[in-house]
Amino acid sequence: MSAIELKQAKLAQLPADVAVPAYVRETLVPSIVHIGVGGFFRAHQAVYLDDLLALPGNVEWGYCGVGLLAIDAAMRDAMRSQDGLYTVVERSAAGDSARIIGCVGEYLYALDDPQAVLEKLADPGTRIVALTITEGGYYVNQGTGEFDAAHPDIVHELAHPESPRCSFGYLAAALALRRERGLAPFTIMSCDNLQNNGDVTRKMLLAFLALRDLELARWLATDGSFPNSMVDRITPATTDEHRALVRDSFGIIDAWPVVCEPFRQWVIEDEFPQGRPAWEKVGAQMTHDVLPYEKMKLRLLNASHQALCYIGMQLGYTFAHEAMGDPGIRALVRRMMDDEVTPLLDEVEGIDLARYKDTLIERFSNPAVRDQLARIGTEGSARIPKFVLPSVREALAQGGAIKLLAFTVACWFRYLEGHDEAGRDMPLNDPYAVRLRALALQGGADAAALLSLRELFGDLSDTPAFAQAVAQALASLYGLGARGALEQIVA
């Protein structure tokens, strides 16, 4: 049988082993606007809502996706050509399973019609605006923790408030419209990997609004809500290999499927004055204190991802499971979690930390997911300060060990040079790529040039214990090579 093009009218023709939406999509109310419709959102938050919509009485909740960037044009085309439908494939050693997600009933592309995006955000029916805009999308000066008003996006928004381009610009313009129209602000929910992501969103957005419209900032500070959340599901970037898998294994022609691991977790602070979906009915955990879960996940999972990806690429690996098959990298990850990060963590209700770490090793090693190291290593200028450096700071304050954490930073420095030891390119996807590459080439085996970036390292640049540990590790990477440095550090 030939493969079937994914569309609403053809759902009944799909193979019986492919689950399809168990609700009438036309009845959904798109009361949640999601900015940043990428692979993670489609494999995580959208799956939770799709599960909920299969239960009766939840049609008041649906998604309207929004793309703000030029690169979102491809997602626009895929979503519109497929009536907002797409395939999620869960991959494990036990096999693959596929389902069709239908909760994204509408997709708006800001570069086509910015006014349509603003009106959707300002619509009285919009109750939640959710964000997956990457760690770098919140305009945080990593060195100080304050708002980066000098960022080019922000400079543009302040000079041209009537022509927004970034998420903060659109949020500001839409909130101004709601205030003028006597509407309450929508709840703003970050779903990005930031500790205290709701608090960070609140702080940065209010700082931006204070420069743009002080009265609007005061209104949002009083009436707005920014729930914290912790999200978790390993989701590699979609490739042509994934499209072929969906076509050949499940008989579906899908322009942009998403592949992920079976595991997923979502912990949400229950602060939604405009109402919310009953996510707890489908496995999400509603709480009034997300921080312990968030800290555990960011410091263990996300920091370990940083530890394995940069050294992995230098050793010529492409995928996470390949890197985890290397005894040295596996030891690096496990020892960093056990010896340097775990002593900094509080007890987390309902979580056995030893078992949690075992599960992380299993997840990283899942050969079916084929998670790209290049994906994990994107935006290191945002991820290293958020996932690795907080543990460094706490460990130094407590007199703890930082050797492996510092080695992870040094591996990032070495990666920034651009080539592995065989001369192969290591792709650098980072908003500060040009500056980082220049400093890496200038400094070489001397870490001082990159450590001088105070907007990333703050006072750690002047902390001898940290600076010396990174300098020694980087010198060993250049002097002994990646394999020799790794063997030395885990010996």
From TrEMBL:
Statement: the UniProt record of this protein carries the keyword Nucleotide-binding: no
Domain of life of the organism encoding this protein: Bacteria
PANTHER family: MANNITOL DEHYDROGENASE 2-RELATED, MANNITOL DEHYDROGENASE DSF1-RELATED
Domain Mannitol dehydrogenase C-terminal, first and last residues per copy: 289-477
Family: Belongs to the mannitol dehydrogenase family. UxuB subfamily.
A Pfam family the protein falls into: Mannitol_dh_C
Name the record gives this protein: Mannitol 2-dehydrogenase
Domain Mannitol dehydrogenase N-terminal: 31-281
Lineage: Bacteria, Pseudomonadati, Pseudomonadota, Betaproteobacteria, Burkholderiales
Organism of provenance: Janthinobacterium lividum
InterPro entries for the chain: 6-PGluconate_DH-like_C_sf (IPR008927), 6PGD_dom2 (IPR013328), Mannitol_DH (IPR000669), Mannitol_DH/Oxidoreductase (IPR050988), Mannitol_DH_C (IPR013118), Mannitol_DH_N (IPR013131), NAD(P)-bd_dom_sf (IPR036291)
GO molecular function terms noted in the UniProt entry: oxidoreductase activity, acting on the CH-OH group of donors, NAD or NADP as acceptor
Key words, A-Z: NAD, Oxidoreductase
